[in-house]
Amino acid sequence: xxxxxxxxxSSMGTVPHTATKNRSTFKDxxxxxxxxxxxxGKELAPKSDRLYCLHVEQNLLCNFSQPEExxxxxxxxxxxxxxVNGVEVEAVLVSLTDKNLIDVExxxxxxxxxxxxxxxxxxxxxxxxxxxxxxxYESYAIECEGMTQGLMLIAIRxxxxxxxxxxxxxxxxxxxxxxxxxxxLQNPVEYRLVGTTLLEFARFRSYELxxxxxxxxxxxxxxxxxxxxxxxMDCGVDEEKENLAYFEWYxxxxxxxxxxxxxxxxxxxx
Length: 270
What we know:
The radius of gyration is 17 Å and the shape is globular. It is built from six helices and 13 strands. The protein is 26% helix and 26% strand.
């Protein structure tokens, strides 16, 4: 069982919004991700879902008023890609349940314990039980063909932007993909885009909460290039967190309709 607050491998309900771009409307994350996935293309798709982030317990904690709340039960249809041929396959992003924790214990852990992966002894049941008893945290999973493919724990309150300290962010506490979706353990992987989809949902969640799609995390060495490729801003090292680099999906303050425009514009031409 890993101590709480140790580095974690980083491998998304929803309120409809009606902001448009060229009269197109995304009613939920399922529609948005389908559009984003087409825009991202192969250039931004990671060759590996081995992402890293770190839990932060420092003076970023603030007293916030209750943000806009949505249903804690999420079910969004998404698309992953088969690692062997790139063919799209339908998957679902859901609020984390006991089924997902059982999958991790029965199918992830035996494989991970035979590796040197940083999360080989993590206890996701403990993470879920301890953190999500607090409304500050939410946990999600991606399921495909009956199996849990990725997990994410985010903080929706208590964290501020490093760029504009008055603005709130969604902070990615923990994120991981199944061992068979990591190229360092299996090539070709079973499914691609698991980690990317989870991160995009954290961004969508930030939008829902009125945080302007700001998302932050800490990256371990070796993952910085992945975050830069996804257009995270490298905010430099954090001396209070073992000099790990802090990354943030940052953009200027704007109206909700502007945010939808920029969400599409930022991948134009890729």
